[in-house]
Amino acid sequence: MLSWIRVFSHFLLIAVPIILILLNSVDFYPNLSFHCKNYFLGSFLYYLLTFSLVFTSLVLLHKKGFTPEKIFSNEKGRNVIWFMILFLLFASFLLCPPKFFLTKHIAWLTALSVSSIFIIEFIDRYPLQTNQTFFNLIGMTILLCIFVFLRGTEEKFEAQTKLLLLVSGLVFIGGSHYFFNGNMNNLLVPSNLISAGYVLYVLGMMPYIEQNFDVCVKEKADYINDTLAFFSMSNIRPNTSS
After folding, report:
1. Residues in CB range of 83: below 8 A, 6 or more apart
2. Is 183 left (phi over 0), alpha (psi -120 to 50) or beta?
């Protein structure tokens, strides 16, 4: 059974980003809808919620005794069914206009939870590396959120700002490695490489985030589609009309 402290920590991982998103990126009047104010912070909060929900779902499934062998099986085409469910969930929130705010979010959050089953094998075989990887991804995204909040501007990121983020990310990865392993040996482990790749990816995608801000101002904000587009390196913005 999960300890109460661990349960509470996972609850906070999901609850805090949701509360901050509601405060930062959502209009309540006249209808629930996204807005473009503080777009950079809103984007990073959605990235944070993505990692937090997938990680929490992954841990919960693992602690409940689910294994790849139990989830995936050729019996009655179970594999195909899982992929079809995930495909329908992703299609539903991608094609859902932003004006259907609650429906879009329910489909998106459900899709993230279901997607965790496809990486459950990693936490089953490599628990330390998986935990360290998500710790790094969540921690560095929190740092990005704090940095953008303190920066307090929608201006483009200069070269020196990106360099500062790069150095901060690498320092965080080093500190995380020491926290999990008790030494600084063997830094080139998969969790550190994935984390460093994420830092470089975010910095490389900054022009895309800045471009989305410009689109957001001209059209209807859609953080969910923008989040999926960010992680898939694509341009997904259908049904932006309100």
Report:
1. none
2. beta
pTM of structure? 0.82
Helix axes 127-151, 159-181, angle to 10 degrees: 150
Other CB atoms within 10 A of residue 77 CB: 11
Q: What are the tokens at 228?
A: 């999926």
Q: What pLDDT, in 10s, does the model give residues 94-136?
A: 777 767 777 888 888 888 887 777 777 777 777 788 888 889 9
The pair of structure tokens assigned to 196 is 């460093």
Strands (E), 92-153: none
Q: Which pair of tokens denotes residue 24?
A: 């930062």
Report the alpha-carbon distance of residue 58 to residue 124 in Å, rounded: 10
User: Hey, what's the torsion of the CAs at 220, 223, 225, 231, to 10 degrees?
Assistant: 140
Both tokens of 218, joined, read 């001209």
The two structure tokens encoding residue 182 = 């008790």
Q: State which H helix or E strand residue 27 sits in.
A: strand 26-27
Residue 194 near residue 133, CB atoms below 8 Å: yes
